[in-house]
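Example complex used in Figure S2.
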Amino acid sequence: MAAALHLLERLDRTFEGGGEGAVARKLLSFLAQHPTTTHITLQLVRQIALERSEHGDSAVVRPRTQVSPTLETDAMAVRTLQYLSAGADGVLEAKFELIEEDREDLAPYVLTDEEVREVMAAGINPISGEYDPDIKRKVVIFFAPTHEMADLLAAYVAGGGAR
Amino acid sequence: MTSGAPNGGTNPVPSTSAGTGLTMAAMTVLGHHDPMIRNFMRRLEAQTYYEFLEVLYDDIKIAVERLEQSPQLYLDESEDATTQRLLDTLYGMSYGTHHNLQLGGNVDITVELFRKGFRWIGEAKKFNSVGDMREGYLQLATRYKPGGGSVTTLHGGLIGYLRRPNAVSSMETWKTHYSDDVAKGSTLSDCPRRGALAFISEHAHASIGLPFQVWHLCICLHFDPQDASGRAAKRYQKPATAAPGNITKGGP
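Predicted assembly (415 residues):
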């Protein structure tokens, strides 16, 4: 429990009481209720943060007037996910998958570290092996819970969850 | 919240393919908007110690500028508390950070990319005189074990929290004292990130024998508003015995 509290307190301190702490608490509550979640996407975080805002329980800025995602709320969500991925005790790990929207026959393909580097450095599509000028619009970042997440969630639930 | 994104903004989300997901392209757009996540991909993709160092130094610059935005909030803060603020920002960028990690002594600042095995250390000092910086440098160069990950050059940082006016002059004085008296024969070069508020030195590490490159930089936390409300505010008034701007070369 101390680790969970420390992580959230440090998050509040880092962002000086901004919305990141609320986003993190809502995300942890969601994961505690859905412990088999393996794909934490930006869409999921938006949904968790913004859906509740419609009921007046908001993690985002201006909840009553702004319920659609904005650049600012997306940046806040990413800052939160990035924070939860920090250091040796990070509870999330960033991963990448290729989604070819015009190829319904292809399932999302999770990239290896080497393939991510090739996308970044040379724009190589890992499936075709060819240069793809649109590849950075096809590679999606998502976050996966680490083993430390299970410990954190157990502590978080024991501590009463979101406040 | 001082991440660079004003609360309450209503800018539309960046146009992306792959649904409305967080594509690499969308991350680039968000990074332009928010310095805290600007270097997300570079941190993840750093494969060499040099790449780690380049992105870390860019991120330290962002963290330093974040501190400098609100010096009035840290007027009487202890050295440790300011260091913790700096480390919190770097942790928020997903670095592993430690304050007072034991590496031959209690190292003020240790920053790691844990999964890559890269480590960098720094010493932070209240920069009241060049004597403070000299002590910090000697701790860094002779007591601590430098960061791991490079086999050709060792790297570290010396950070001064400066609450006196004219930071450029203070850094010039430290630079002169450093090259004349502290580490004779060292090579000095300009800092492309912080300009006259920093410099880079290189000197053989006494214990290891490899070149030891140190980034010397100050964080400008001086706050002395001269407008009417600043003059009236008791918290900004200097004690009667204070001697601002007095630099004692080689003094404690």
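Residues 49-68 of chain B form the longest helix (20 residues). The two ends of chain B are 36 Å apart (CA to CA).
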